[in-house]
Amino acid sequence: MSTPFYVSPQQAMADRAEYARKGIARGRSLVVIQYADGIVFVGENPSRALHKFSEIYDRIGFAAAGKYNEYENLRIGGVRYADLRGYTYDRDDVTARGLANVYAQTLGTIFSSAAEKPYEVELVVAEVGDTPEGDQIYRLPHDGSIVDEHGSVAVGGNAELISNYLDQRHEEGMTLAEALKLAVQALSRESNGTQRDIPAERLEVAVLDRTRPQQRKFKRIVGRQLSRLLDADGSATATTDDASDEDPSEEE
To answer: What is the mean pLDDT of the chain?
Structure first.
């Protein structure tokens, strides 16, 4: 009888982590940036049906990089958690911190289980506060750890290069147009130092806007409104509630 092949627990975890990182790296990067009136989500996504960004609850947004079917399952689970908690207790009891803890437990359990492969996803859960100081951004890697981020965060294939670029250029109090342009510039950078063009129709953009009068602060930026923001000069501002660009089908 042959001797079973032995792999140490440390090596097994390292192999699983490497597998998950390679899967995430194959996906397109995305960035989440704080600006004066909220938080903006920007990513390259040619599909108009398969979204990287979604609303979870009134003030909470969700962003993900990696395998779509895996992070879509997590998104749906987060919506169910938020709806149940808000209905059972109070809407104010649904927080990004609580949701991040739920996702961390789920991802951590899957990552440490030998019965299934680790999820090839990296998540960002963000909540907009009444003031910029109240904003919360949490990054959740494949292993279920939680990283409390401030200012900006990038996940996906080229995340390290993009994060370094954002850290050097992000400033507090930026307008939405400025934050959006910074995000597109960061996403356009290649590892060899060159920069490519990302047309507006290939961008997926959403915001959590604290100035919206509605209880739900999440809104997608599309069409003419997105083009105006990209074309605006540094001093220009644009509201996220332009009635001419409001598309009910895009609101989640």
So the answer is: 88
Separation CA 212–CA 203 (nearest Å): 23
Distance CA 167, CA 243 (A): 34
Token pair of 199 as six digits: 């047309």
- The highest-confidence range among 32-46, 107-121, 155-169, by mean pLDDT, is 32-46
Predicted TM-score (pTM) of this structure: 0.88
48: region left, alpha or beta (phi > 0 left; psi from -120 to 50 alpha):
alpha
pLDDT digits (tens, 9 = 90+) for 74-111: 999 999 999 999 999 999 999 999 999 999 999 999 99
One-character DSSP codes across 11-60: HHHHHHHHHHHHHHHTSPPEEEEEETTEEEEEEE---SSS-SEEEEETTE
Please tell me the distance from the alpha carbon of residue 73 to that of residue 209, in angstroms, as a whole number: 26
3-state class of 210 per DSSP? coil
Classify 108 as helix, strand or coil: helix
**125 vs 56: CA distance, rounded Å:** 9
Q: 61 and 55 in contact (C-beta within 8 Å)?
A: yes
HSE, CB side, 13 Å, CA atoms: give it for residue 172. 5
Residue pLDDT, tens place only, 219-249: 999 999 999 999 876 444 445 555 434 444 4
Buried b (16+ CB within 10 A) or exposed e, 205-217: bbbbbbebeeeeb
Q: Say if residue 250's pLDDT is above 70.
A: no
Q: How far apart are CA 207 and CA 37, in angstroms?
A: 9
Return the half-sphere exposure (C-beta side, CA atoms, 13 A cut-off) of residue 218. Answer: 19
